[in-house]
Design brief:
The complex is a heterodimer of chains A (about 425) and B (about 170). Chain A contains twelve helices and seven strands. Chain A has a seven-stranded mixed sheet, sandwiched between helices. The radius of gyration of chain A is 29 Å and the shape is extended. The longest helix of chain B is centred in the first third of the chain and has 23 residues. The radius of gyration of chain B is 16 Å and the shape is globular. Classes of the chains: A alpha/beta (about 425), B alpha+beta (about 170). The interface between A and B is large, with 40 and 45 residues.
Amino acid sequence: MEEELKGMVEDLQVLKGSLATLEKRVQNVTSLAKTTPTRRSKVKDMSSEVIDSNPYSRLMALQRMGIVENYEQIRDFSVAIVGVGGVGSVAAEMLTRCGIGRLLLYDYDTVELANMNRLFFRPEQVGMTKTDAAVHTLSEINPDVVLESYTMNITTVKGFETFTESLQNKKFSTSKHGTGVDLVLSCVDNYEARMAVNQACNELGQTWMESGVSEDAVSGHIQLLVPGETACFACAPPLVVASGVDERTLKREGVCAASLPTTMGVVAGLLVQNTLKYLLGFGQVSPYLGYNSLKDFFPTMEMKPNPQCSNSACLNRQKEYILAKPARDASAKAKMEAEASSQTEGPLHLDNEWNISVVDDSEIEGSTSNKSDALPEGLVRELPISDNYENKMIPVETNAVTDDLDYLRKQLDALNAD
Amino acid sequence: MEGWDTTTKSTLTQIPLLTTKAGPRDGALWTQRLKEEYKALIAYTGMNKSNDNDWFRISAANPEGTRWTGKCWYVHNLLKYEFDLQFDIPVTYPATAPEIELPELDGKTHKMYRGGKICLTVHFKPLWAKNCPRFGIAHALCLGLAPWLAAEVPILVDSGMIKHKDDAATSAQ
């Protein structure tokens, strides 16, 4: 009897103890739910001090590891993200967590429950514009980032004007030579918007990166586009190159395209990794990187601009790039020479038994490029060479005297009236 | 063009083709293009009327001719269903086709993008791309919107998603 009573008293004590801890947890959770999320104050300089309260300690460690020379310069960079969807929102979060200087976000859509199979947006944000919801979340994650949001469609004439103006705004940093941003990231889901980004960047000479996920959600790609130097989006749409599918037949999100958080996350990761390499100058920046998730195949390639590109701004940038070739060659040569002179003087090998000599590459390159049209003996071209392609599209009829725009408008109105 | 009915094909051949490759930001060239757009629309509307196949009204909503509004209708089981019609000329026009919108049907069919933009991806966009810059607004209506209405309106009516305006009025009383 006594033994039993003793045991029950002990049990009661244990229960009392666990009740107390449970009460404390309830208190904690309720107070956490009541208080608004604590915002950290802005940080003036990125510190590499390794303490728990430093949000940049792990990023600054990239310098100590010898990967990045000067990580803190990330705060001087502006990146524009067009399309804040499955890829764009995640890319924005990654750049925000990396402490990018300024982010410009463009989207005209609202958050919907159908977006919840992807990352970043939360169910309570349903109904908000994607830009508002993103700014809300991102400013909580890192208040140091300057966020600008534009809720509009960039493919309309007015939206496009606002888009190009916002890219040229240099108030954040005056040191930029061309536009007010360092890089544009296209994270849109349709051909029209990609063409609009392409048009803007070709006109401004703005370097940009394109990203995309296939409609079956199992492959994707990223591509670096430097107007004049690499293929523009109108020169060679990536999917035509990758799979032979016509880009224009791509379905969009609204009409039953599949999507996976994994593929979108991988593509966003590839895109931002390439962005960081481009901005901070480490590693090799990929000109094109594909991702085939079914076979885990990552093809890379380079694409030269199409001299018959249908985009006239692209052709202008190509001409400028060719004109700037001597200067580019000279600076490359100077750099080579500087590197060579810094190395040890004197012959590399004392004896040269086989009389091997090094011949300058550039001369051979020049002579072969002249012969590039020539074919080996026995081969003939199937199609004639189009020398006069550019003159082909001149309008045939120029009888502008008889037709007046107002007259035509009235004529249509008259037809519409009855 | 295989897979298209002979009526559409013969209609299409009678709509004048356009020659000027210019978008809304190309100044005088755009005016030239706009004239060609009007000519094609006038020819197409006139042709529809003379064939007793009148099915849309469209006119420019701004002097620059970058926004167009109007009406389109489709007859199903002897009842006429009419919808507001609108679209913007995209900044990259004519490399990209106009995105035709029927705002009243937004959310009623999954053959549509947000904002009531009808899905042109499969049946029309490749044709437009191949015929750039010869196709214009009239061609987009003939080959983009008309087949969409013919395919979707019967489904929308039969599934009860849209009601004829007379039915809607009587049921409201």
